[in-house]
Write a structure and sequence with these properties.
The protein has about 290 residues and is of the alpha+beta class. It has 12 helices and 8 strands. The strands form 2 sheets. It has a 6-stranded antiparallel β-sheet, sandwiched between helices. The chain has a two-stranded antiparallel ribbon with strand order 1-2. α2 packs across α4, α7 runs antiparallel to α11 and α8 packs across α10.
Length: about 290
């Protein structure tokens, strides 16, 4: 059967999740999806994987995985290391990111200002893009030793556990924000239960102060603030900007009293320079929710 309005395409979900949800979809290219599942298995800490490891990680049958990895290697998306009998992501995979990043020209406008703030606070300043229940770094600036978390373009982090994620959610129209909460809750019930109130408090904080805080919920030694940047309605993209600092460098109250207003001001400056509107609609809704 084909998809209907009652079963929307989950374009931002992982390839594995969509594959599992599409067993009855006659229009779905299962082999292509399995190849993408294999590619998504490679991540930080798992940069070299053999066929058996890939089968275990993805749940794809062992006889199928070698055909997928061979094809991906022939196309340049994987690179085979004969000595280790393992695969790495190939250079061609990097090409796929360029059209997306090239369409975000505001990153070049923002970067000098981001670098200035990063050097001033001796931390990191990054822009993230909402992708399902994750944030993906699309630009980052840092100064010196920034602790155990070193952001890089393409790196995913949690939405619900981070200031960056909560700030991006604060840019969403009300209906999209509700769907995001449903998705987070359905993907990890325990995580949502543990962070639901903190997450919603972050949305309210963005509405009232223009930024939200994260006191080590994601990485204990890193405290962060983040501000909503903008929501691109046509592209359906939500962006936020954050600043992360090793906790030992912060004075009591400095994160909320100094760094938070600075990241909010930086977000406002970026929007002004690129002509983007602030997420006022969502902020108004969050203010109403916070007063209830």
């Amino acid at each position: 059967m084909t998809r209907t309005a009652s079963k929307p395409i989950r374009a931002s979900s992982s390839a594995a999740a969509v594959l599992a949800d599409s067993v009855d979809d006659a229009a779905f290219a299962t082999t292509l999806a399995k190849g993408l599942v294999v590619l998504e298995a490679f991540k930080a800490g798992a940069t070299q994987l053999g066929n058996m490891e890939l089968s275990t990680l993805t749940g794809i049958p062992r006889p199928t995985v070698p055909r997928l990895t061979h094809t991906l290697a022939e196309l340049g998306y994987l690179r085979y290391d004969a000595e280790r009998a393992k695969y790495r992501v190939g250079a061609r995979a990097l090409r796929m990111a360029h059209p997306l990043l090239a369409d975000m020209q505001f990153r070049q406008v923002a970067r000098p200002m981001m670098q200035e703030l990063a050097q001033s606070v001796r931390g990191t300043v990054s822009i993230g893009l909402l992708d399902a229940t994750s944030m993906i770094y699309v630009e980052t600036a840092r100064s010196g030793d920034v602790g155990p978390h070193v952001p890089d373009i393409g790196m995913p982090i949690s939405v619900v556990m981070t200031a960056m994620g909560r700030a991006a959610a604060a840019t969403l129209p009300q209906a999209d924000a509700a769907l995001l909460e449903e998705r987070i809750a359905s993907e990890d019930t325990e995580l949502w239960s543990a962070f639901r109130e903190t997450y919603r408090a972050g949305l309210a904080q963005c509405a009232s102060r223009g930024f939200c805080t994260c006191f080590g919920e994601y990485i204990a030694s890193i405290h962060a603030v983040a501000a909503p940047l903008f929501h691109a309605r046509e592209a359906k993209q939500a962006f936020s900007i954050n600043c992360g600092i090793p906790a030992f460098r912060l004075q009591p109250g400095q994160l909320e009293g100094e760094i938070g207003p600075r990241i909010a001001a930086l977000a406002d400056s970026i929007r002004t320079m690129i002509g983007a509107a602030p997420p006022t609609e969502t902020q108004k809704q969050n203010k109403k929710s916070a007063k209830r």
